[in-house]
Design a protein that fits this description.
289 residues, alpha/beta, 2 domains, 5-stranded mixed beta sheet, 3-stranded antiparallel beta sheet
């Protein structure tokens, strides 16, 4: 199995690679599509803590100040429990029943409790419950605890990595992307207490057994170690670090992809060693700029 040089290897949880996928998906999609990460439990953290990146511990929704909020042009599902709760809450305010009927529609041809109803959009694409100041009427009237699962959690995502809980903040959120790409030591791994997710849904993604996977997935643990190394080369601006990741992805994409039945380890090792060499970093970044 190919490995990065010993001095460069750091045990990584799955969300780390997922974060890098978001960074490089445009150019390296053929290489990384569908990859969510598989590894043994990190030596850091434990069952009573959460592993994440530093920027995730400081993330806060900026609401009406967001340049491209998540409250428009999105098909938001509402589970049955939330549907019944919101209907009850709206019945307690003037014209609430009418507002609820306009803003939440039952999906009659779907018996799923998780996709029981959907939030309606206005003609301009905004959520029905988004007010003129781009603030949520449900949140203002009833509190964040009464939001549906998607609205309550996004852009947070939890993963259960063989008993270790891990948290990422999706980079499709502009504020999350800003903090991740521009913050100091933003991609540094940190261990935090589980109170960081208090008030949010505890629903998690569970990772598959790595022993049953194709070579592409079996080797990805080593590959993301290299990607984290590149993301933390602090002597270069973030755009230079992303370029290094893209360069590596481009060079291995022809044989290291999700449909590969066989992966030429020697070629992969050669590329890992090439991109892990700090002297090569400076030459590549100079070419980019």
């Amino acid at each position: 199995m190919p490995r990065a040089p010993a001095e460069l290897v750091t045990p990584l949880p799955p969300f780390v690679f997922e974060w890098h996928i978001q960074q490089v998906y445009v150019v390296s999609n053929a290489m990384l599509n569908g990859l969510e990460g598989v590894c043994e439990m990190s030596e850091r953290g434990g069952k009573n803590s959460i592993l994440t990146m530093r920027y995730a511990t400081e993330f806060r929704c900026i609401g009406d100040k967001c340049p491209n909020d998540c409250c428009h042009d999105w098909d938001i599902m509402v589970d049955k429990k939330t549907f019944l709760n919101l209907r009850r809450l709206h019945q307690s305010i003037p014209d609430g029943s009418k507002i609820f009927q306009q803003g939440v529609k039952r999906i009659k041809d779907n018996s799923s409790k998780s996709r029981y109803a959907s939030l309606q959009m206005k003609e301009n694409g905004d959520c029905f419950f988004l007010d003129a100041n781009r603030l949520c009427e449900i949140y203002k009237s009833f509190g964040g605890g009464n939001l549906g699962e998607t609205c309550k959690n996004f852009p947070r995502k939890l993963t259960d990595n063989f008993g270790q809980v891990e948290l990422i903040i999706d980079l499709s959120c502009p504020e999350s992307a800003r903090m991740c790409l521009l913050g100091q030591k933003s991609t540094e791994l940190v261990e935090v207490q589980k109170k960081i997710i208090e008030g949010y849904s505890k629903k998690m993604d569970h990772l598959p057994n790595s022993k049953t996977l194709k070579p592409y997935f079996q080797y990805r643990n080593e590959i993301r170690e290299v990607l984290l190394l590149l993301a933390n080369t602090a002597q270069y601006p973030m755009v230079g670090r992303i370029y290094l990741m893209l360069y590596f992805a481009q060079r291995v994409r022809s044989y290291f992809h999700s449909e590969s039945e066989v992966c030429p380890e020697e070629m992969l090792v050669e590329e890992v060693e090439r991109i892990a060499n700090p002297q090569n970093h400076s030459q590549l970044v100079k070419q980019f700029f």
